[in-house]
Amino acid sequence: MSRSKSTTLYDGRSTNWDTMSCVSQITTTRVFKEPTTKSNKQLMEMALKFHALPGPVNKNERLKAMDSMSNSGANHFLALYKDKAYRGLYEVHTVEELMRISKIHGTGPKVSETMIAELLKFNSGSKNFQLVDGKTLSPAIDGFRLNPNCWLSKRPRTVPSKL
C-alpha cells in the first residue's frame, strides 16, 4: 500500500500531495532584534539634570559629568550618594562574572561591591532615587550608598602645644 495520498481536485485533475510543494514564496522580515547590552546612560543624564545636579547653579558641574559619561566606554553608570547628597558618578564594566566599578566624576573612594550598603533605582516619573530591596548589583541599579565606615572621617584639629 502506498503512503502517498492521491486526491482528485474539482476540475478533475489528480494530485499527489507528497510531491507537491506547498511552500509560499513570500519574503519575510526578521522578527527579532539582535541582543544588545542594556544602557542606563539616558536615565543617568536625566538623574543628573533633575535630581543630582539640578538648576543653572550646577550647570557647569553637570556638563562635566555628562562629558565624562560620553567619553566613557561603559554602558552602565551609577551615582554615588552620601546621605541624600550626590557625591560622584561611577562607571561599571562587566568582565565575565566580575564587575569593576571606577569613578569618572566627582568625589568618593575606590569602590568594590562589598563596600555598598544600599542600592538605588532612579524613578523617572517622580525624578528621584528610591531604595531597592536586595544586595545584588545588576544593570537595573542606578545608584548606591556606601557603608558609613568607608568614608574618611574628619580628624579633630589639634592645637599645637606651647612649649
Chain-wise SSE layout:
Blueprint: E1 6-8, E2 14-16, H1 41-52, H2 59-71, E3 76-82, E4 85-95, E5 98-106, E6 116-123, E7 128-132, E8 143-146
What's the short story on this structure?
This protein is α+β, with helices and mostly antiparallel strands and 163 residues long.
The CATH architecture of the domain at 41-150 can be given as Roll
Count of runs of 4 or more consecutive helical residues: 2
Order of helices and strands: EEHHEEEEEE
**Spatial extent as radius of gyration:** 30 Å
Please outline the major beta sheet.
6 strands, mixed
* DSSP summary, beta strand count: 8
| Distance linking N and C termini | 120 Å
Structural class comes to alpha+beta
CATH C-level category of the domain at 41-150: Alpha Beta
Plain-language structure description:
Helix 1 packs antiparallel against helix 2. The chain starts with 5 loop residues before the first strand and ends in a 17-residue tail after the last strand. The chain contains 2 helices and 8 strands. The strands form 2 sheets. Strands 5-4-3-8-6-7 form a 6-stranded mixed beta sheet. Strands 1-2 form a two-stranded antiparallel ribbon. The protein has a domain of 110 residues: CKK domain (Ubiquitin-like (UB roll)), CATH 3.10.20.360. It has 163 residues and is an alpha+beta fold.
